[in-house]
Amino acid sequence: MSAPYGESLFSFLNITGYYIYSSSCHDLSSKKYLLSHGKLLLAGCFFAVATSVRSNGILSGILLAYDAIWQAYGLVSRRSMGTMVVRLGFTIVSGCIVALGLLIPQYLAYTSYCTNKDYIRPWCQSLLPSIYGWVQRHYWGVGFLKYWTVPNIPLFLLATPMLLILFLSSLWALGAGVSPRSSGTTPKTSSTISSSPASSLLIQLAIAQFILTVMAVTSYHVQIVNRISSGYPLWYWYLVWRALWTSDATQSAKNRTQVLLVVQLMVAYALVQAVLFGSFLPPA
């Protein structure tokens, strides 16, 4: 997505946030604590801005929630106190920064539309007033299973290839044993996840992406998954793994052919979508 539209900016911000977050985890494992904590806060800032561009950016906060849960568990089990307390504090602050990316636009909308007593919009009376939820329900008809209608079957078919890639890459990441490549060995998926930062990151990416996939199927206009998926790096990682990580020559050639086909379809779809999207037709 290279057009001057929300997805391209969101993808840049979200993937940059993921990169900074992963760098923070690497620095933490190398005991570069100050640098790691600073990068964690910076990643939260990128996720917050990404969330202000597209609300599904809030899913990136799952990385921080995952960390906070494990860090809190570590404190309860008293495995590590001092360092983990500090890290938990920075994780919570970073998570709050991400939440601001969703809350600040809501607050600005509330002060703009709900403070005039002469004309108050219906959503202002809600227990948790949200202009985003109102617009999605009232103008776009978004809701749980509301898109599951016979006329929308072609749109589900249009989204199926991307949904399949998202689903398979999420399952792969949840079961992947990540280890450095060595000659004569083939990395394989495993039910046991190693404790390396890369393995933990894979699980976190998988959780966020899987939730996005489920929400796209059940609650979104499903065809938009072809656009919003561009901001999630896991499925790119999965395609590279499919193309490169095997020692069997025949299987390697087959995998590369499959990945090449996927890339060709992505390019072709981008060209077609550029025309259709500009005309506000269904793939938008």
TrEMBL record:
Pathway: Glycolipid biosynthesis; glycosylphosphatidylinositol-anchor biosynthesis
GO molecular function: alpha-1,6-mannosyltransferase activity; GPI mannosyltransferase activity
GO BP, one annotated term: GPI anchor biosynthetic process
UniProt cross-references to Pfam families, sorted A to Z: Mannosyl_trans2
Subcellular location: Endoplasmic reticulum membrane
GO cellular-component term (any): mannosyltransferase complex
Signal peptide: none
EC number(s) stated in the UniProt entry for this protein: 2.4.1.-
Transmembrane parts of this sequence: 33-51, 57-76, 88-108, 155-178, 199-222, 259-281
Membrane topology (UniProt): Multi-pass membrane protein
Function: Mannosyltransferase involved in glycosylphosphatidylinositol-anchor biosynthesis.
Family, per entry: Belongs to the PIGV family.
The protein's name in its UniProt record: GPI mannosyltransferase 2
Organism: Aspergillus calidoustus
